[in-house]
Design a protein that fits this description.
single chain, about 260 residues, alpha/beta, TIM Barrel, 2 domains, 11 helices, 8 strands, binds 3-methyl-2-oxobutanoic acid
Length: about 260
């Protein structure tokens, strides 16, 4: 299994890192068999699995439930688990208690926390207790209301300065990697060149040290995808076709056949 050192090495050796955000046993198993570098159990499960508008209602217990399933499906893969909204913001002690539950109960290798300078004391508390932390800057979905919606970040000079300062602060605090979400590619390039830890982009262009996509997005399970998603397969169409064929074959008595029957 990979360790945080392998991700740092990958950056030094100019090898791109692949990360997939997913939430179930079966999809994690496919990710491991396909050889992705790491799996994120993202709190995007609020939207993808629960059909919610935001990640805010996702609970720590739900993250733990899904992370356990992912670990079962991917026993040899480095797994990062998102700390959900309000599981780390209250105090470093509260964050440590909750991150501790994630690590003890799921077998994850690291946690991810959204935010910059304001979360540094929390990150330091976790890292000094032996819990590796991944940072997350740019569009931080847990702050969707404060950001005024799901918008590209880092467009103004002021925003750019803040994201750059935040990335330096996160690196100094000891995070092993930073997710950059929905920022212009030139800003992601500047940060990637500046920090020694790997950056992993989503909607951040081609210059980051790695890329992350949500499994269900890249497999084409939704009607529409954001601009940054590449749909590698049209999963919804394939599944719909299979279900229609199943219904038709049942109606017509073509399924089950003899080979599907215990005689
Ligand atoms: O929740 C998630 O899946 C994420 C990725 C999109 C980076 O945070």
């Amino acid at each position: 299994m990979k360790t945080i050192n392998d991700f740092l090495e990958a950056k030094k050796e100019n090898r791109k890192i692949t990360m997939i955000s997913t939430y179930e046993y079966w999809s994690a198993k496919i990710c491991e068999e396909a050889g992705v570098d790491c799996i994120l159990v993202g709190d995007s499960l609020g939207m993808v699995i629960q059909g919610l508008e935001t990640t805010l209602p996702v609970t720590l217990d739900q993250m733990i439930y899904h992370a356990k399933a992912v670990r079962k499906g991917a026993p040899e893969t480095f797994i990062i688990v998102d700390m959900p909204f309000m599981s780390y913001q209250i105090s470093p002690e509260d964050a440590l208690k909750n991150a501790g539950r994630i690590m003890k109960e799921t077998g994850a290798n690291a946690v991810k926390i959204e935010g910059g300078e304001e979360v540094i004391p929390i990150i330091q508390k976790l890292i000094s207790s032996g819990i590796p932390v991944m940072g997350h800057l740019g569009l931080t979905p847990q702050s969707v209301h404060a950001l005024g919606g799901y918008k590209v970040q880092g467009k103004t000079q002021q925003q750019q300065k803040k994201i750059i300062n935040d990335s330096k602060a996160l690196e100094q605090a000891g995070v092993f990697s930073i997710v950059l979400e929905a920022v212009p590619s030139n800003l992601a390039k500047e940060i990637t060149e500046f920090v020694e830890i790997p950056t992993i982009g989503i909607g951040a262009g081609r210059y980051t040290d790695g890329q992350v996509l949500v499994f269900h997005d890249m497999m084409g399970f939704f009607d529409r995808s954001p601009k940054f998603v590449k749909r590698y397969v049209e999963g919804k169409d394939l599944f719909t076709q299979a279900l229609k064929q199943f219904s038709q074959e049942v109606q017509e008595g073509k399924f089950p056949e003899k080979k599907h029957t215990y005689d």
